[in-house]
Design a protein that fits this description.
2 domains, BirA Bifunctional Protein, domain 2, 17 strands, Helix Hairpins, alpha+beta, 12 helices, 3-stranded mixed β-sheet
C-alpha cells in the first residue's frame, strides 16, 4: 500500500502519477473520510483535555472537602463521549484502510508512459531466431504428435485449461524445474524454499492479490484460505510483521510451486495448449532489499531469469512495461518474452518487478539500520525464473524437427536420464 502520509500531504501528485496508469480511481472519498477522521480526533483530544482538567479539579476540591458530584458526573459523561467518538474514529480508519488497499502502486520515474501494451519499450534482444525449412508447428500440435501432453483426458478429469503430461512430457517438466532451481541456488545464491501451497487471506492481502483480484483466485470452501496463484505470496510473507537486520539484506529466495488461477476475464484467449492454464508450474524468485539497492537488485533479478533462457538457447527479448501496462503492485516491471516460431511471435515467459515498499507496508516487513535507529520498510522484488509450462512450449516450438520430433538442449540431457531427443512413440 502507499504511505498514508504521502496521500494526505501530496494527494495531487499521487493522483497525477496514478493517472499515467490510466487509473480512473478518485481519491475524493479518501480526502473526505480523512478530514472527517481528523475532525473526530480533534474532538476526542479536546474532550480528553477537559476530562484531565476536571480530574485535577476533583482532586483539589476533595482536599478542600468540597462537593465533587457534579464534576464526577461530567467526567463520566465525557468518558462515554470519548469512547463513542473513538469508535467512530476506528470505523473511519477501517474505511480509509479499505480504500488505501485498492490504490495501485505509483510508477517509478524511469517507467515509460503509455496507455497499454503498445507503449511498452523493447530494452534488448538475445539469441538468433531460427529459420525453418518447413512450416513450424505450434506446441500443441507437436505435443499431440509425440503423445506427451493429453489435453482431452485432462479435460475429462478437470475441465478446460488443464493439462495431463505423459512420459517424456512429464519428465521434461520435472527436468526444467530441477534445472531452474539448480541455476538459481548454485549460480545466483538464492535459498531454495518449499512453501505451503495454501495460504491465508492475510498473506494474499500482504502481496496485493486481495482485495483487488479475489475473482481470479481459488478459495477453499468453508475456510478463509486460498490455493497459491504464485510462490510470490508465501515467499514474500515469510517475513511478514518482522524487523530484519540490515546486514542480512539482500535476502534471496527461490521456490517451485504449482500455481492456481481462474484466469477470470481471459475466456477465448489462448484456449489451445499450455499458454494459459488454471494450474501450472513455476519457479519463482523473490528478493528483500534496502531501498537504495533495490533497482540494482531488480536488474540482477532480471538477469538471473534471463540466464535460464540463455542456458536453454531460447531467443527472447526484454521489454520495459509502460505505466498503463504495469501490474497493480509494481513500481517497475521487465517482461521477458520468448520467441515462439509456431506462433511467429514473442510471448511472455517471466515478469520481473520491483514493488518498492508497497508490499512491505501491507505485510509489515521492515529492517533496522546497523547503527540502530528507527526501522524502515524493505523493498520487495520478484520474478518468474521461469514459468515452466511456457518453457516447455518454447522448447517444443524452437527445437522441433520436420518429422515432429524435438531435439533437447544439451543442458537438459542429464536431467532427462540421457534422453537427447523426443521422438514419436
Amino acid at each position: 500500500m502507499l504511505d498514508v502520509r504521502l496521500l494526505r500531504e501530496n494527494i495531487e501528485e499521487v493522483e497525477g502519477r496514478l493517472a499515467t496508469r490510466g487509473s480512473v480511481l478518485s481519491l475524493d472519498k479518501f480526502k473526505s473520510l480523512d478530514e472527517s477522521r481528523r475532525t473526530l480526533l480533534r474532538g476526542v483530544e479536546g474532550l480528553r483535555e477537559r476530562r484531565n482538567y476536571i480530574s485535577s479539579e476533583i482532586a483539589i476540591k476533595k482536599k478542600k472537602g468540597e462537593d465533587v458530584s457534579t464534576l464526577i458526573a461530567e467526567s463520566k459523561a465525557l468518558g462515554s463521549r470519548i469512547k463513542e467518538l473513538g469508535e467512530s474514529v476506528s470505523e473511519k480508519e477501517e474505511l480509509l484502510n479499505g480504500i488505501v488497499l485498492t490504490i495501485p502502486n505509483l510508477p517509478h520515474a524511469s517507467v515509460p508512459k503509455g496507455a497499454g501494451s503498445g507503449g511498452n519499450i523493447e530494452v534488448r534482444q538475445w539469441g538468433d531466431i531460427r529459420e525453418f525449412d518447413f512450416p513450424p508447428r505450434e506446441h500443441y500440435e507437436i505435443s499431440d504428435m509425440l503423445g506427451i501432453v493429453d489435453f482431452g483426458r485432462a479435460a475429462k478429469l478437470s475441465g478446460a485449461r488443464f493439462a495431463l503430461y505423459r512420459g517424456a512430457g512429464a519428465l521434461l517438466e520435472r527436468a526444467l524445474i530441477n534445472l531452474m532451481l539448480d541455476i538459481h541456488t548454485r549460480e545466483h545464491d538464492y535459498l531454495e524454499i518449499l512453501p505451503p501451497f495454501i495460504v491465508n487471506r492475510k498473506a494474499m492481502t500482504g502481496t496485493g492479490q486481495l482485495p483487488k483480484f479475489e475473482d481470479d483466485l481459488f478459495k477453499i470452501e468453508g475456510w478463509d484460505h486460498y490455493l497459491v496463484p504464485t510462490a510470490e505470496v508465501p515467499l514474500t510473507n515469510i517475513h511478514s510483521n518482522e524487523i530484519l537486520k540490515e546486514e542480512a539484506l539482500p535476502i534471496l529466495y527461490t521456490a517451485y510451486t504449482p500455481c492456481f488461477r481462474k484466469e477470470a476475464g481471459s475466456y477465448g484467449k489462448d484456449v489451445k495448449g499450455l499458454i494459459r492454464q488454471h494450474q501450472f508450474n513455476k519457479v519463482e524468485l523473490v528478493k528483500f532489499a534496502k531501498p537504495e539497492d533495490s533497482y540494482n537488485e531488480h536488474e540482477k533479478l532480471t538477469a538471473d531469469a534471463e540466464k535460464v533462457l540463455q542456458v536453454l538457447g531460447l531467443p527472447y527479448r526484454v521489454v520495459s512495461l509502460c505505466t498503463g501496462d504495469l501490474g497493480f503492485a509494481a513500481a517497475k516491471t521487465y517482461d521477458l518474452e520468448v520467441w515462439l516460431p509456431g506462433q511467429g511471435a514473442y510471448r511472455e515467459i517471466s515478469s520481473c518487478s520491483n514493488f518498492e515498499d508497497f508490499q512491505a507496508r501491507r505485510a509489515g516487513i521492515r529492517y533496522r539500520p546497523k547503527g540502530g535507529g528507527k526501522p524502515s520498510f524493505v523493498h520487495t522484488l520478484n520474478g518468474s525464473g521461469l514459468a515452466v509450462g511456457r518453457t516447455v512450449v518454447a522448447i517444443l516450438e524452437n527445437f522441433q524437427e520436420d518429422d515432429g520430433s524435438v531435439s533437447l538442449p544439451e543442458c537438459l540431457w542429464s536431467y532427462m536420464g540421457g534422453l537427447k531427443r523426443i521422438d514419436k512413440g
